[in-house]
Structure formats: structure tokens, C-alpha cells
Amino acid sequence: MTFQKSDEESASFDVADLRREYTRGGLRRRDLTDEPLALFERWFRQACDARLADPNAMCVATVDEQGQPYQRIVLLKHYDEKGLVFYTNLGSRKARQLAHNARISLLFPWHMLERQVIVLGTAERLPALDVLKYFHRRPKDSQIGAWVSQQSSRISARGILESKFLELKQKFQNGEVPLPDFWGGYRVTIDSMEFWQGGEHRLHDRFLYQRQPDGWQIDRLAP
What we know:
Its EC number is 1.4.3.5. The protein has six helices and nine strands. By secondary structure, it is an alpha+beta fold. The protein has a domain at 22-131 and 181-220: Pnp Oxidase, Chain A (Roll). Strands 1, 2, 3, 4, 5, 6, 7, 8 and 9 form a nine-stranded antiparallel beta sheet that branches. Strand 5 and strand 6 (115-125) form a beta hairpin. The longest helix is centred in the first third of the chain and has 14 residues, at 36-49.
């Protein structure tokens, strides 16, 4: 189907003309930390302090068996020196793809701060005890929601989900919601982490941390 724009619409809107200057500040080598997680934590806390919507939202990229990349937004739930953690349905498309290829990319798009962080690494399943501890920290309705959805499967109508949710809410109203055996988590070990800070005249600042046997190699990248 082809959508026709009026001459007035065509004259007033052109995606190629959407641009702005990035003026919030640069990123210099003196601002860097010896290892990337410390700088990530600083930026993450600043994103939280700036009251960005969903500062822990990250775009998670995986690849299927045919080499087709897929991306989706997932919420970061923990990070430490071991890596970055998220949770998901183990029957989901992302989980199936990670079972085939554990290489993964994460992107944090902190647009309002004119920043982004890219993580490359490997995803590994979390131990069941770690998953259980987090599952019972979730609101009860979210726990029930995990039981309702066979993520990425085809459904005929939203009403199916809503009916199942109400059925399970009634079932578990007076008791603890058990952990589904098809729900789990992943820890992404960090092989590299790139920090991007917008700059004037498109002269952005980019620094890449790459893991080496004896520490981290840090390089400035051209914008």
C-alpha cells in the first residue's frame, strides 16, 4: 500500500532534516575509570538521578541459526563485577537463540543525557537459586504474569491472556506463587564496553574498553 502525502505535508516534514546539536558535555580520557563497570555505574546513577524513564532499559540483540539478528527491550535487574543480569521466559525467542549462540549485545540508550553504552559479551544461565530469590522479590501480579505467557508464541486474542491471568490470580490468592520451571535469568559477562557521549558538530566522544588477559585496553574511537 502506498500512502500519498499532500504537498504541504511533504514540504513541512522530511526525516532527513531531523537533527540537533549535542551540547551536554564531552567525555575525556581524564574522565575514564580503570575498568568499565565503574564508569557504567557512574553513568547509570546519573541516568537515575536525571529521572529518565526506565534507565535500566536496554536493547538486547541475539542472532538466530540463520544469522538473522533480533532486538528487543529488556530491563537490567542487577550488575556487578561478574556481569549484567536480566530475566526472561526460557521458551522465548531470545532464550532459544542464546541456546544456539550465547554471544549477545546490549545497548543502553540514554538519549536525554546524549549518551549510550554498548556491551558485547556472552550470556550464561543463572543458577536456579538466584532466579528463585529474584522471582520472589517481584510483585505478586508480575509473578503470576510469568505463568500466563508462553513468550513469543502465537495467540488468537488478548482475552486469552487476561482470562488465564484471572484464573491464576484466583488460584494463588492465598498462597505463594511457585517459580515456573520455564522462567529464568542470564548473566552477560563483559568482553567489551563502549561509551558514547554526543558532541558538537557531530564530533562525538567514544571510548572502547576491551578485556585483555592482564586488564582492560582502552581506546578512543573516531565518531
